[in-house]
């Protein structure tokens, strides 16, 4: 019926999206959802070009970055993806994911994401560790990064200054930008306080 997989997927996604009344949040995960899965590259992928052309503009498209688990996300890559998809991508961030390797638990700060990235995104989803308690630092430092990004969007020349003021402490870089190390220290401080609080509860 369809000349390509991309046209088939876009047609089905469009029909479901319209049948549901075009909801404000409707996400589509393409078969090529990161650069390493694209042939030969995101901008030259016939599959992604078709998805960008055929998929209705109100549908968000999920992207994980250069790889399935991406150590870095750059503005240059996101510009390339936005151009071919004809919309800003929704990042499905697998930085902390460990469902593929239960021996891996990443407790470091949210990092490797270029400053000013939020303005190039339609949204960001964090795929956490499978172990619930291990996600305090990932979620806490993501929150610090997000506040810094909000500050840079409000004052492009003073990135993150509002976030630093909101934190009530100097947990940013010297120029007020996001500092993964400072974010980690802030998260650890709050996590220890949370653990101590739980230790005082009856039955603990």
Automatic annotation (TrEMBL):
<dbReference type="Pfam" id="PF07555">
    <property type="entry name" value="NAGidase"/>
</dbReference>
<dbReference type="GO" id="GO:0016231">
    <property type="term" value="F:beta-N-acetylglucosaminidase activity"/>
</dbReference>
<feature type="domain" description="GH84">
    <location>
        <begin position="1"/>
        <end position="150"/>
    </location>
</feature>
<dbReference type="InterPro" id="IPR011496">
    <property type="entry name" value="O-GlcNAcase_cat"/>
</dbReference>
<dbReference type="InterPro" id="IPR051822">
    <property type="entry name" value="Glycosyl_Hydrolase_84"/>
</dbReference>
<protein>
    <submittedName>
        <fullName>OGA GlcNAcase</fullName>
    </submittedName>
</protein>
<dbReference type="InterPro" id="IPR017853">
    <property type="entry name" value="GH"/>
</dbReference>
<dbReference type="GO" id="GO:0009100">
    <property type="term" value="P:glycoprotein metabolic process"/>
</dbReference>
